[in-house]
Amino acid sequence: MSRLIVYALMCCMCVTFFASCDGRRGDGFDGVSLDGSWLFVKVDSSITSDVHQQLINGGSVAGSERVVLPHSGSMAGLSYDNVAVVDGGVGGNCYYYRKFMVPGWMSGKRMSLFFEGAVHHCGVWVNGARVMVHYGNMPFVVDFVPVEGENTIVVKLDRDGAICNNVWLVAKDSLSITNEYERSEHTGGVIVDARCVDGGGRVAMQAMVRNSYSAPRKAQLSYRVLDHNGKEMGGCGVSRLMGAGETAAFGDSLTIEGITPWDIDNPWLYTLEANLECDGVTVDTKKVTFGFRNISISEDAFSLNGRERLLHGVRLRSGYPLVGVAVSGNANWRDAYKIKRGGFDLVIPSGYMVTDEFLAACDNYGILVAEPNEDSYSSTRRNHPCIVPASLGNVNLCVYGCDASADIAGSEQELLAQSQGMSAMFNEIVPRYWSGTVCTMFDDENINGVMSANRMPKFAYYFSQSQREIDEEELRAFADPVCVIASYWLPGQSRGVRVYGNCHQVELFVDGVSVGRKSPEMSPASVNLPHPGFYFDVNCTKPGTLKAFGYDKDDTPIAECVVSTPGAPVRLKLVLDESGTHIGANDIVMVHCYVLDGNGNTVVTFGDGVEFSVTGTAQMLTPTVVKCEAGVATAIIRTGMSANDFAISAKCRGMYTVADR
């Protein structure tokens, strides 16, 4: 019996006790990953004290599960009957613990444990001693003094706890640049303040250096600014004699000619390399990605590099179905890609603080991120050009009701109502404010998102996408012509056809016959929009095909869209969601299974379950059977840390096929 199988060849990684560092960091720290070989256990409150003492004394607990970080303690929330719930973490207490040996090359260095995120109330014990109590989900650093032989880490988390990001064992020389997430009276790490001035750029930089030696040391810190090709644009340096145990700031500045500003349309990035030497020997290096930009915010306008901008924003509650906020760095990049592709230039995080990986993606894609203008945030996220300050207040509109049984992605009329409501909202905002924000990007327990929890676009997503201007010179990414038919063309259900696009005119054909060529619909509810939609007064009375052509001002067709009434389900198609970022090791990936008719149309009326299975070292995180939404079932897998390849299969109602990747 044949099965639908997609083979995904994964990059080969050496199987070692310490996994190799994520290549995307590139910031010069010396460390190894501690993401593998953890044990996880949930503990009832009645026996917490006994288990706690047993673990911190180096013991283990029966029933512990071997896990890889990032990890969420709960796999509840995504089921056959409910595919749109984001629910990570566990109730009560949970423990993560592991043993490890310190690599020989770290001997004699100053060591620390760097947690990139754990929620919410977190206690850390190292070799039996409590070394940290942490609240929230921001990264934190723990000083680490190793013992001979095996070392033990125990992490206790309360409520819906999870280690939601990577953990690193970091080794530094006793003369080194501090970590920006250290708890210290000094502002740690490297600070970059880059601004546009008179056709060039001025960059001020400061690195906090610590001398942990018991004697004075002569420290010399040199700075280099590099462009995206690694070419040096300028440099400077500062040196001083540091006393034993002293921490000091090494600051300097320089002006650079011929820079390109960072902008949401052209997110040009540079690298600052800070190189610390002692007696002519390099002892530490830190690399920081930054951009030159000037921001001005007032009640009436938002200006970026001297140009007033109307920002199209969206609120973001981070997390995937099932795994919650414990997602891979690559998954964060994929979400940022979808946000930018959807026409959004501003993200307002809701709930959890977004990760540094997500901010790096926003730096690269040109997405502004509004974060609280509060010390614990601003002191650690300051170098990202995507960051704009925001108040700590929360803005809520009244919600008078919610039908939890409503179809999430399959009802054409409800999806149209959502997209038109979004259109009316932005039409009202444009003449009065400099930014408008959609309630949420992805569905969670609520179904207000412009994409489902499984990252499938709704009609509102395409409306948002259509509000971005076309880049006629093809210099900007994500500025393509848009022409999307917001209809499933179902007999007796599809009444009127709306087309979203950033074209000058749209012509619609029904079964090959033109029903007219129209300009954007101008009404009090759309007059302020950059690109109002196009409306055609035609109803679906029988199965058929819609085809829309978008034209520019020169009467040249620049975009098209085809929608056909789906027939009976005939075959399946698997698509691994990469969204601009290739699948990597220890990655969390969504796999969409489309139910297609004989002509390759998605059968949007299909709602049965699809059975998935995975082979190789990858792990299936969703249940075996996942219910379709609008003809698409989505599985979530986690790739292995040492996987060379994996295979995923899906079957439903006797439909089988084979596709290679």
Describe the model.
The structure is a single chain. By secondary structure, the protein is mostly beta strands. Among the domains are: 4-9 and 569-660, Immunoglobulin-like, CATH 2.60.40.10; 31-172, Galactose-binding domain-like (Jelly Rolls, Sandwich); 190-296, Immunoglobulins (Immunoglobulin-like). It has six helices and 44 strands. The strands form eleven sheets. Strands 4-3-6-11-8-9 form a six-stranded antiparallel β-sheet, covered by helices on one side. A five-stranded mixed β-sheet has the order 41-39-43-1-44, with no helix packed on it. Helix 5 (412-429) runs parallel beside helix 6. It is globular and about 85 Å long. The protein starts with a strand and ends with a strand.
Question: Briefly, what is this?
Answer:
The model is unreliable at 1-27, 75-91 and 396-408 (pLDDT under 50). The chain contains six helices and 44 strands.
Q: Point out poorly predicted stretches.
A: 1-27, 75-91, 396-408
Question: What is the CATH class designation of the domain at 31-172?
Answer: Mainly Beta
Q: Report the CATH architecture of the domain at 31-172.
A: Sandwich
CATH topology of the domain at 31-172: Jelly Rolls
The percent range for helix content is: under 10%
Secondary structure layout:
Layout: E1 4-9, E2 31-33, E3 38-43, H1 48-56, E4 65-67, E5 71-72, E6 93-100, E7 110-115, E8 122-126, E9 129-134, E10 140-144, E11 151-157, E12 162-163, E13 167-172, E14 175-177, E15 190-197, E16 200-211, E17 217-226, E18 232-242, E19 247-257, E20 270-278, E21 281-290, E22 295-297, E23 302-304, E24 307-308, E25 311-316, H2 329-341, E26 346-349, H3 356-365, E27 368-372, H4 375-381, E28 387-390, H5 412-429, E29 435-438, H6 459-466, E30 483-485, E31 495-501, E32 505-510, E33 513-518, E34 534-539, E35 545-551, E36 557-564, E37 571-576, E38 588-596, E39 609-616, E40 619-620, E41 625-627, E42 632-638, E43 645-651, E44 659-660
Parallel strand pairs: 1-44, 25-26, 25-29, 26-27, 27-28
Antiparallel strand pairs: 1-43, 2-13, 3-4, 3-6, 5-12, 6-11, 7-10, 7-13, 8-9, 8-11, 14-16, 15-16, 16-19, 17-18, 17-20, 20-21, 22-23, 23-24, 30-31, 31-34, 32-33, 32-35, 35-36, 37-38, 38-42, 39-41, 39-43, 40-42
